[in-house]
Structures are given as structure tokens and as C-alpha cells.
Amino acid sequence: MHFIELQNVSKRFGQKVILQEISLTVRQGEFVVLGGANGAGKTTLLSVILGLLQPDTGTALLLGRSPRLPAAKTRVGVVLQKVRPPKNLRVKELIDLVRSYYPDALSTEEILNTVNLAGKHNDWAADLSGGQEQRLLFALALAGKPDLLVLDEPTRNLDPEGYTDFWKQLHLCVFQGKTVLMVTNNQADWKELNSLATRTITLQDGRIQEDRQSAIGKMPTPSETAPKQVAMSKGGIPVYSFAGTNSESILRVANDTPAESSSTLSYENDSRSRGFFPQLWAESLQLLRTPTYAIGIFLFSSAIALFPPDKRLGMLGPIFFAGLSLLTIAFERTGKRVAVERVEGWLKLLRVTPLHPFAYLSAKVVMSLAIAAISLLIVLGLGAWKLGIDQSWGQRSLEFTSLLLGSIPFTIFGLALGYLVNPKSVDSIAGLAIPIALFTCGLPLPVPQSVQDAIAYSPFYHYGQLVLWSAGQPYDGYFWLHLIWLLWTGCAFAFLANWAYQRDRAVE
């Protein structure tokens, strides 16, 4: 089985052809260097290899599978350009999160020691220096014990110490038989690459113009790639020690074979749920560490206490206020979080890990629903207190459930927005959605009959009618129609969100 196999791959953006009829095979144990001028298509080619982009023509295989499948990436480690770690997560928390995506990952201590970041456990990942951040990204690439490393300018921003540690670790990876595909424009890298590369490839005008053996012309031997300091483990297995690297962890990695482990073979059985709970925990930490947002939600929900009570409306006022609060959370919070992660490149990095889109999207939806539930409890509780209404627990539960579950389609639509527009545009669309929701939710308005008929197709209308039913208020009587319409809308928005997640330009 070839680790990477491309057959007649072409890719264009608009009228510009980026890749033309590319055929490339990378075999196990090779160290291939991909070169070319800026804009030659190197990053685009890597994106096709990793499943980030779908080729217009031709086929691409990664470890014998479609690169768009999460299971194809269980033994692949990747360093990408222009990736910013998420805010409000510490180094250890971020590494633990990425480790959870893999069926057979290294321990956090092993990963930190490997890249000489020991002692940085509790530092904020987003506040690391440029060199330390690049080391962290390399650490994440090594987390799943990869057989294949795909490195896009991995020495960018590295300080001298980090640069030395990187090449020591890469020598060890080659000694262990790992396959490497590396892109670099750093001339200083060639001092090391001359003793490591088995092949160099140059992209020019969208084609492979040069495909030749390196200066060595053969696979590097352990004596050529291994460090100078050698210790013998029990049983006579060599262990190569680096400054700042744990020898015991290296031995454990060195004993792994490139063969697919049993955990990898069973990965597909649980790939949809793998990483869900760690992802949800990370979302919770980021929320708790953003107090301004949490306080804003609390104050906005509590504003219901400032409105003068209207006995004629009863609980209808608090209920409609609660619905608007949930819609705001669904559009603004969910969509903006995804949009920020996409712009910062973090979403792109997640897509080259085995994390299944379902686990990532589900964690976002559940977190938004948890926030919505808290807001809903505040609004309904304060509203009933303000009006002096004593409702049964059954009635309160019915109102709460209808409002919360009815907001799920709009939360899913918020996910789609996050993949389609930038963060500022999410704010604008959320602001526009509120008056549209008010106009189409079913309130009696002096509008022509044709407009009223059109409003009946709005998901906000069906949401409003379902809420009226739950509150025991007069509604149009088509309960099942409203329920089915919201279910259909949720499925349609889920399809849209999945399409947006997979589309090529979402990761450009």
C-alpha cells in the first residue's frame, strides 16, 4: 500500500489553474521534499492530499483510503501554516484535546518532552511566543504516533533552540521508518535535508517539473540519521537521547511498527463519537473563561424584570422574549464561534485529524443549547415572578421543552453561517434575523393575505405556533404540521451545515 497516491489530479479556482494532471506516489519510508516558488500550488497540493480540497479531476488516496474520511488520518500527523491555537485553553488542555481524537495517542508528558516544552503545561496556548507556538503545532502532529508526517513550512518562526530540537526529532522519525512529505522555502533547511531526503519534487506552472533522487540517492540508514548519543535499553534496543527529550518515551515510540494497530482497525466503529466529550469540555472551559460573554447573557436574560407587567398577555410576553433570546444565542454564539475558528485556521487543523465532523458539530450544538437552557430558565423564572403567575411544573416543563427544542434548527443554521461568512457578517445576519423573526412569527399584523400566506412558510412561524401551543394559548390548531415543519427545517439546515463544512472554500 502506498502512503500517498495521486492520479491525474487537477484543481482550479475560477479561471486560474493551480494543479494540472498531477500524478504522485509516496511510498512507505520515503522522505519527499516538495519545492516551488510562492504561489506554485504547494499548499493546494497538500490540501488535496489531506482531503481539505476536492480535486476537480483525478483521484487521491491517503493510506489507501479517501483522504476526506476521518479514519484515513488516524496515523497521519500534519503541521500547517497560519494556524492559531484557540484562546482560553492551556497547553496541556489543548494537547489532551487533540490526543482524544486518536485511537492510540502518546501521553501528554511524552508529547511535551518530545518538543522540549516541558514546564509549559499551564501556559495559555494562544500566548506562546512564535517559536513555542510552532513547537506546539509540531507536538500536535506527533500526538497520534503517526506513520506519515506532512509538514508545511514546519521551521517557520522557530527560535534557534526549537530549530535544533525539531531536526533532532525529525531525524528520529526517519530512523523509526516514518514517511515524511515536507514543504520548505527555508534555505537553511537544506543542510539537514541533504542527509534525509530521498526525493525532491518541484512544482512549477501547476505541474511536477522535477522529480529526482536527492544527493544521497538512497534511503538514509539509521547510522546516517540517528543522533550521536546512544544508550542501550533492556534487550539491546538502541535509544537515542536528545536534550530536553525523554528517552523512555522515545523507546516506546521507536518500538511501534508502522503496521495498522487493532485500535486503528476498530476506529471506524466509534469514529463519530470519538472526541465528542473532550470537545464539549473544551467548549465549556472557553465559555467559563470568557466572563464578559457569560455576564452579557445573564444581564440580557434578566432584562425581562425591567419590563412593566401586562396581565392581559400573561406569560406570552416572557415567552416571546425567551424565544428571541434563544434565536440570538443560536445565530450569534454558535455561528460566530465557528467563524472565528475557521478564520484563525484552527478548523482547518481539526480537519486533518481523525476528529469526525459529527463530534465537532454536536459539541457546538450541545454547548449552545446549554447556554440557551440557562437563559430560558432565567427569563421564564423572572417572568413568572414579575407577573405573579403560579404555573404547574408540568406547564413550565412543556414551555421550556418547546422553546428549547424548537430552537435547534436555528442553532444548526448558525453552524452553517459560521462556515459561510466571516465573524463580523455573522453579527450582521444575527441582527437582521431578529426583526425577520418578529415579523414572521405569527403575531397579528395588518398585512395583505398574500403576505400572511407567505409567512406560513417561515420556520419562525411554526416555532411561534408551537410555543403558543405549549403555553396553552390559542393557535391555528396544526400542531403536527408545525412539529414536522421544524423537523424538516432542522434536517435541511443540517444538510446545509454539512455541505458548508465540506466545501472547498471553507478552508481556503
Automatic annotation (TrEMBL):
It is found in: Membrane. Keywords: ATP-binding, Membrane, Nucleotide-binding, Transmembrane, Transmembrane helix, Transport. Gene3D superfamilies: P-loop containing nucleotide triphosphate hydrolases (3.40.50.300). The chain crosses the membrane at residues 313-331, 358-380, 400-421, 428-447, 478-501. GO terms for molecular function: ABC-type transporter activity; ATP binding; ATP hydrolysis activity. It is a multi-pass membrane protein. Residues 4-230 form the ABC transporter domain. It comes from the Bacteria. GO terms for cellular component: membrane. This is ABC transporter ATP-binding protein/permease. It comes from Tumidithrix elongata BACA0141.
